[in-house]
Amino acid sequence: DLLVVGSANADLVICVERRPGAGETVLGSDLALHPGGKGANQAVAAARLGARTALLARVGDDAHGRLLLDSQRAAGVDTAGVLVGGAPTGVALITVDPSGDNSIVVSPGANGRLTPDDIRAAPAAALLTASRVVSAQLEIPLETVTEVVRGLRPGARFVLNPSPPRELPPDVLAACDPLIVNEHEARVLLGADVGGTAVGGTPEEWAGALLALGPRSVVVTLGEDGALVADASGTARVPAVKVNAVDTTGAGDAFTAALAWRLGAGESLADSAAYAARVGAVAVTRQGAQASFPTADEVAAG
Ligand code: ADP
């Protein structure tokens, strides 16, 4: 069973001709409201593929929280671990200009109130001891992720997408199997390691440098160029799947969810990543995040 620990946000999207400057008001499109946040997205992506999935998160006691709970339940996610209250549901205020560029303001809200105490208490503790694969991101407090690592059941597999990226404590890094990063996240993690300077080199070199930070394995996602997996036994490219991309939002979440699910089913890292690349490729051919995530049948057909 897969447990996703992470964020749940309401994404409020308005298309604008141009972004407002200080003190300025611009008119935009009708508001679009979507369930989002990396944790919520991963849980929906995994459940839609057919994985038995639970989400451990915190939302507010408000309409956005209910929207998120509804979308999880509609996808078949076990929501017993979604805590309610303490702060408003997390929100991402997103403006999109005609060239497709985003400007985003995030209010973490309830995501910032998912505490280490929440992880030690019921129902989270029971979910953690029951889960053989646990997937997390960094849109919740780092101390909470650290507590998740401490609470893993023996032999459980921990998958981390460190997004938004920041320096990680050694015990969290050591638990990652794999650490999943895109190019930006790789640069930040490695830049922090070498005194803030940007890192050059090939993805193979980044993977090697990331492995030296302590995780048991590393996956570097490379957008339309596929991905790369690395562990003590070596490094391998995961070929890109050629598609006509229309919206890459949520591709990384779909990839991570699919990878965690296949690892839990006993597949190798390379095979799991190859499957995850097919899932990510379908997701980019459709608009939206959660709305773009495929079923296993759709992956097989695509
Ligand atoms: P993130 O969304 O975190 O930046 P990526 O853009 O690397 O992550 O996408 C995650 C995965 O989704 C990639 O490794 C790849 O397998 C798949 N993917 C993303 N963009 C495309 C694309 N344009 N064509 C095919 N596959 C893609």
Commentary on this structure:
This protein has 302 residues and is α/β, with parallel strands linked by helices. The chain has one domain (2-20, 28-301): 3-Layer(aba) Sandwich (UDP-N-acetylmuramoyl-L-alanine:D-glutamate ligase), CATH 3.40.1190. It has eleven helices and 13 strands. It has helices at 38-49, 63-75, 116-120, 124-130, 142-151, 170-175, 183-193, 203-211, 251-264, 269-284, 296-301; strands at 2-5, 9-15, 32-36, 53-59, 82-84, 90-96, 102-107, 133-137, 157-161, 176-182, 217-221, 227-231, 234-238. The chain has a nine-stranded mixed sheet, sandwiched between helices. A four-stranded mixed sheet has the order 3-2-6-7. A hairpin with a 5-residue loop joins β6 and β7 (102-107). The longest helix has 16 residues, at 269-284. The radius of gyration is 18 Å and the shape is globular. The protein starts with a strand and ends with a helix. Adenosine-5'-diphosphate binds next to α9 and α10. GO terms for molecular function: ATP binding; metal ion binding; ribokinase activity. This is Ribokinase. Pfam families: PfkB. The active site is at 253 (proton acceptor).
The CATH class: Alpha Beta
Topology as H/E string? Answer: EEEHEHEEEHHEHEHEHHEEEHHH
Give the radius of gyration.
18 Å
Distance from first to last alpha carbon: 26 Å
How are the strands of the largest sheet arranged? 5-4-1-8-9-10-11-12-13
CATH architecture: 3-Layer(aba) Sandwich
Helix-and-strand structural type: alpha/beta
Which word captures the global form?
Answer: globular
Major β-sheet annotation = 9 strands, mixed
The helix count comes to 11
Tell me the CATH topology. UDP-N-acetylmuramoyl-L-alanine:D-glutamate ligase
| Overall structural domain count | 1
- Which residues form runs of ≥5 with pLDDT under 50? none
